[in-house]
UniProtKB/TrEMBL annotation:
Spans through the membrane: none
Native organism: Streptomyces alfalfae
Binding-site positions, heme b: T46, K138, H171
Family under the similarity heading: Belongs to the nitrobindin family.
Class of this enzyme: isomerase
Region (Disordered): 1-21
Residue ranges of domain THAP4-like heme-binding in the record: 26-178
Keywords: Heme, Iron, Isomerase, Metal-binding
Motif GXWXGXG per UniProt: ranges: 34-40
Name listed for the protein in its UniProt record: Peroxynitrite isomerase
């Protein structure tokens, strides 16, 4: 099982049918495992205008009852060409019995979130349990994230945000397709 290319004996699985076999507690999120890429739009009351972006999301696992999560996004112009790097984050989604999820997510903007929620029937719904901020981070009070498997090979993502004095409201919506290919 030792894979010299990965440099250690326990490479992550990026495929629900591959090796290592996913842990039984990952059953409610098996459909998410792999790489997704697609486009989205964002807005917030503090911004002059809404924006378009592209996003790549990866969920992998090492056979234990948690997912490794990684997301990168970049802003795009009206023709879909990249403008500049935008939000990125990574973390761990700990699956509990009954589909409960405990997620730890950190961002280079100084924000660390713990979110809790539930995974069932192709949907994961996570809401803030706690947010920790570095001294210079923007004020973020809460988020809500929904991931929905919407038909074969399609994942929709919706993100609400309470930050910089604005109560929880829509920030992002994206539609991703499996495989990492440019949509
Ligand atoms: C796909 C992911 C995301 C994208 C593409 C995105 C994009 C943006 C953009 C374009 C802005 C305007 C400022 C700028 O131009 O950089 C912004 C502001 C902001 N975003 Fe996001 N964002 C994403 C995810 C998140 C997440 C996960 C959080 C918090 C947990 C967050 C919190 C904020 C905050 C606090 C602001 C500042 C609002 C203000 O000061 O007016 N964003 N985002």
């Amino acid at each position: 099982m030792f894979d010299p290319a990965s440099g250690h004996p326990y490479p992550d699985g990026h495929d629900a049918d591959g090796t290592p076999a996913p842990h039984a507690l990952l059953a409610p999120v098996l459909g998410l495992i792999g790489t997704w890429r697609g486009t989205g739009r964002g807005e917030y009351p503090t911004l002059d205008e809404d924006f378009a972006y592209e996003q790549k999301v990866t969920f992998s696992h090492d056979g234990r009852p948690f997912l490794r999560y990684e997301s990168r996004a970049w802003l795009t112009d009206a023709e879909g060409r990249p403008l500049r790097p935008s939000a990125r984050e990574s973390g761990w989604w700990r699956l509990q019995p009954d589909g409960r999820v405990e997620a730890l997510i950190t961002q280079p903007t100084g924000i660390a979130e713990i979110a809790v929620g539930h995974a069932a029937d192709g949907t994961v719904d996570l809401a803030t349990h706690e947010v920790a901020l570095t001294p210079t981070a923007k004020q973020v009070d809460a988020t809500r994230r929904r991931y929905t498997l919407a038909g074969p090979g399609t994942l929709t993502f919706a993100h609400d945000l309470a930050a910089v004095g604005v109560p929880l409201r829509h920030h992002l919506a994206a539609r991703l397709v499996r495989g990492g290919a440019k949509p």
